[in-house]
From TrEMBL:
InterPro entries cross-referenced by the UniProt entry: Alkaline_phosphatase_core_sf, GAG_Ulvan_Degrading_Sulfatases, Sulfatase_N
Transmembrane stretches, start-end: 36-59, 71-96, 116-138, 211-231
Record bears the keyword Nucleotide-binding: no
Stretch list, region Disordered: 314-333
Record organism: Fusarium oxysporum f. sp. cubense
The name this protein goes by in its record: Sulfatase N-terminal domain-containing protein
Domain Sulfatase N-terminal: residue ranges: 536-735
SUPFAM superfamilies per record: Alkaline phosphatase-like (SSF53649)
UniProt keyword terms in alphabetical order: Membrane, Transmembrane, Transmembrane helix
Keyword Membrane among UniProt keywords: yes
Length: 874
């Protein structure tokens, strides 16, 4: 058995390395020229060849403690490699991407993260089975062939070694083949018959040309390895065992230099500075002068002496006391400038562009000031993996044509009638008609919405943002930006849960308002206390979400854990995915919360995160699925997108049911409801090479709906390249300008709104200001590898690599909105040159500017969040 096991273990190593290398090269080979690929291919394979040779030398069937120990270790190594290779191949099959091993331990150490990994178990098992079968069939051939190859290559090496020993006084007799000698044991094959080193007499007859061939190969490998460009060839040459070592890389190395200055000094010269004006604190980046010091050193007069959570930036100021002590900076935390530490000072922020000095847009100005709009309650609905172009689906759009095309040969009116029923609630929320018409030009019948009786008058319903982007394709980073109005950090995982946001989050702002008034019942809602609550039908245990929810101030939380208690008490609940239950299971808890709000005379802040549209897009068994896309036969590759569309249809109905629940409790006319996608979701229909959000910079992962719903606000289609970072300041602006805050609260809100980096979406959006662009940043899942950027003044989009494993990616969204023809290069110099030739000088300048800004922006986020990677080691 042992005689068979050893060759099988070696064969497993060989096959695992070969398959993963083929996948690795297939992903990146198209990014370089064919000539360069052929030239450097041997050097790219060299690390894998070395691992194979070392494995073959270790797996020798010989007696002796050392040899047996080497065999045991070699077999253990083969099984580790089998698991890693199967995971790599399975992940590639599912997503078109590679496993990032530096994140593997964080997933494996999280029970809910493990559920994500196990969701792809079938493809991993299939890949593992393939490796095992191939390795078993080829075990003797590979074992002997590689042994013979090592023997052939090893002969001149051994000959030279023996010659060297002879020159140093060893007797000729000692050079004769001796199976007990240390050298020969290292180069001998065992029982199967092929010896790595032949007899010394044969060795002496080695022809000189063997030396020449080996010398030429060695020189070629040396030159192509040392002289090739670092990018992308160092990454392409990475062998699987070396890549796996990233799992054990010290997190302290993730700290970047945060001392780099603003890269565009011409934009922050004194002639561009802005003086303080009213509540506006001024803008003087690069000059720590009077305005900056005043903002830093002046404690707001409205701030309570017992400083609430979210406002710790003033903890160290005089005349204020708190029960909390400022945490000591951990020794392994990223170093930050001593002047401001984690303090965000808008006066010194070179990216800060405020539009609060402009009037509210005409369409809604008079309505807001006339007192017709009251906002007693605020609801924030985050929609998992929601895409703007499908909220709602519109006839004639690119994706509508895709769906129709899949049904080739079927009646077009029947197909369109089916598609018109996918997102009727979204049509009402956004004010964007689906434009559904028959082929003869007549309208389809109005789609009934049984879940919701919308009572808003025609022409009213609120503000819908056209052109919205998320701040991250990682759900929780997006959630942090939405709730806190602060950019997240370009680091792997939800590290924001381990520290405090550098801006006050929405529940914390409302808690501040609570502390500014007496906690007593009042019929005047302006004097009532806010009651923040969070609802989610799946687990909140994944990647420390529960820690974040508690930290930012939710007083009432219902997630899977609470729903599990219901199931223990006899309630039947259906799990639809590896995270939990459908949103409809929350309805009873939501109604209990709404009753409590009314009975206790409180103001509601209701936050809800949907989940059905998360992979694997399961829906309850009672939900009747529809073939929005043809998935029969050759069209089977549409099945995942069709599952997603059905999950969207289910969620669309749930949103209507939720709004009807608000209406049933008499809250509709005094509730502002904000709808926003946490990020999008890429499918094979978008690009066949990669799917999902993980390390995928495609724009379909970033376009999201952003809608502010209130039945008394006129309909507005707000065109701006804005992000969900603007939600919090827009909520404050609406509360201020509808008279929905008492005097003390409004006084605080009028100060606070100037702190946030996002612009208000009820005022004209400033795409540029004094030559500065309104930049938008999008952190790509998992966090530390890629960053996407757009600016409100230009149609271009760039994906910037933060490590050496990905390329720069440039697209023109005006002429290529679906990013079918991206321009990809490995270096900034290559990219700007190619962009200049294809898109012009201005586009090239924009790309270089975006890259420069990103190099400043990333470390600055870590400074502001007080990023401390050492907690992973604690």
């Amino acid at each position: 058995m042992f005689a068979t096991l050893v060759p099988f273990c070696f064969s497993t190593i060989f096959v695992s390395l070969t398959f993963t290398k083929l996948v690795h090269l297939s992903i990146h080979a198209k990014t370089i020229s064919p000539g360069a690929f052929v030239l450097f291919l041997p050097s790219l394979l060299l690390p894998d060849v070395l691992v194979i040779i070392l494995s073959r030398l270790a797996l020798r069937q010989q007696k002796g403690l050392f040899s047996v120990g080497a065999c045991v270790l070699g077999c253990i190594f083969s099984f580790i490699l089998l698991g890693a290779s199967a995971s790599q191949l399975g992940f590639f099959y599912s997503t078109g991407n590679e496993v990032k091993w530096s994140e593997a331990l964080s997933y494996a150490g999280d029970k809910d993260g493990m559920k994500i990994l196990l969701s792809g178990l079938n493809s991993v098992l299939a890949a593992g089975a393939l490796i095992v079968v191939v390795a078993w069939v080829a075990k003797w051939f590979l074992y002997r062939a590689v042994g013979s190859l090592i023997a052939t290559v090893g002969m001149p090496v051994v000959h030279a070694w023996q010659w060297f020993r002879h020159r140093n006084g060893r007797s000729p007799q000692s050079l004769a083949y001796d199976s007990d000698s240390e050298l020969d044991e290292d180069l001998e094959v065992a029982k199967e018959g092929a010896r790595l080193i032949p007899d010394t007499h044969e060795e002496s007859r080695t022809r000189p040309r063997t030396w020449i061939i080996l010398a030429l190969i060695s020189v070629f490998l040396f030159l192509t390895t040392t002289l090739r460009p670092a990018a992308p060839y160092t990454m392409m040459s990475m062998t699987l065992p070396a890549a796996m070592l990233e799992m054990f890389k010290s997190p302290a190395k993730l700290c970047n230099n945060v001392e780099g200055g603003w890269p565009l000094p011409d934009l922050i010269t004194p002639d561009n500075w802005e003086e303080p004006n009213g509540r506006f604190p001024g803008w003087t980046p690069g000059n720590d002068g009077d305005a900056a010091r005043k903002y830093r050193d002046t404690v707001p007069e409205w701030l309570p002496s017992d400083i609430p959570a979210g406002f710790s930036k003033w903890l160290s100021k005089p005349n204020k006391t708190t029960d909390e002590e400022p945490a000591a900076s951990p020794s392994k935390a990223c170093e930050v400038p001593k002047a401001d530490g984690t303090f965000y000072n808008p006066v010194l922020d070179p990216l800060k562009i405020s539009n609060l000095d402009t009037d509210i847009i005409d369409v809604i100005r008079d309505t807001l000031k006339g007192g017709d709009v009251k906002i007693k309650h605020v609801a924030l609905i985050m929609m998992e993996s929601y895409r703007e172009e499908l909220f709602p689906l519109q006839q004639g759009s690119n994706y509508h044509r895709l769906m129709v095309k899949s049904h080739k040969g079927e009646d077009i009116d029947e197909i369109n009638e089916k598609l018109s029923r996918m997102s009727p609630v979204a049509e009402r929320l956004t004010g964007k008609s689906g434009n559904w018409k028959r082929k003869d030009g007549s309208d389809f019948e109005h789609v009934a919405i049984p879940q919701w009786n919308d009572t808003a008058q025609e022409g009213y319903g609120g503000i819908n943002v056209v052109g919205g982007f998320t701040t991250s394709s990682l759900s929780f980073k997006s959630m942090a930006a939405i709730h806190c109005g602060a950019w997240s950090m370009p680091v792997d995982g939800f590290e924001e849960s381990e520290t405090d946001a550098y801006q006050a989050c929405i529940p914390q702002v409302f808690n501040l308002f609570n502390k500014l008034k007496d906690d007593k019942k009042s019929k005047d809602f302006l004097e009532q206390q806010w009651y923040p609550a969070f609802f989610q039908s799946i687990t909140d245990g994944y990647d420390r979400q529960d820690k974040f929810d508690d930290k930012i101030g939710f007083e009432h939380i219902v997630t899977r854990g609470r729903l599990e208690d219901d199931r223990k008490n006899g309630e039947e609940l259906e799990e639809i995915n590896y995270f939990g239950f459908p949103e409809t299971t929350l309805k009873g808890h939501i109604e209990d919360y709404l009753k409590e709000v009314k009975e206790k005379g409180k103001r509601m802040f209701f936050s809800h995160f949907t989940s059905t549209t998360h992979h694997p897009w399961g829906v309850p068994k009672s939900f009747e699925k529809t073939d929005f896309l043809n998935t029969e036969g050759k069209m089977g590759w549409h099945s995942e997108f069709n599952d997603y569309l059905n999950a969207m249809r289910f969620t669309d109905a749930w949103l209507g049911e939720l709004l009807q629940t608000f209406d049933d409790h008499g809250l509709t006319n005094e509730t502002l409801v904000v709808f926003v996608g946490d990020h999008g979701q890429a499918f094979k229909e978008d690009q066949k090479s990669k799917t999902g959000t993980y390390e995928n910079g495609h724009v379909s992962n970033f376009r999201v709906p952003i809608t502010f719903r209130h039945p008394h606000i006129p309909r507005v289609q707000y065109n701006a390249n804005a992000t969900s970072l603007s939600i919090l300041p827009t909520i404050l602006d609406l509360l201020i300008n509808t008279g929905s805050l008492n005097e003390k609260d409004q006084n605080a809100a009028e100060d606070l709104i100037h702190d946030y980096e996002g612009q208000s979406l009820i005022r004209p959006y400033k795409a540029t200001h004094n030559g500065r662009r309104a930049w938008n940043f999008g952190i790509i899942n998992g966090g530390a590898s890629m960053l996407s950027m757009t600016s409100a003044d230009a149609p271009w989009r760039i994906v910037i690599p933060l490590d050496d494993s990905t390329q720069y990616r440039f697209t023109d969204l005006k002429n290529d909105p679906l990013e079918k023809k991206p321009l990809e290069k490995w270096t900034l110099e290559q990219l700007t040159y190619a962009v200049r030739n294809k898109f012009g000088e201005e586009a090239s300048k924009w790309a270089a500017e975006a890259d420069a800004v990103s190099k400043w922006w990333g470390p600055e986020r870590k400074r502001l969040w007080g990023y401390n990677p050492s907690h992973k080691e604690d």
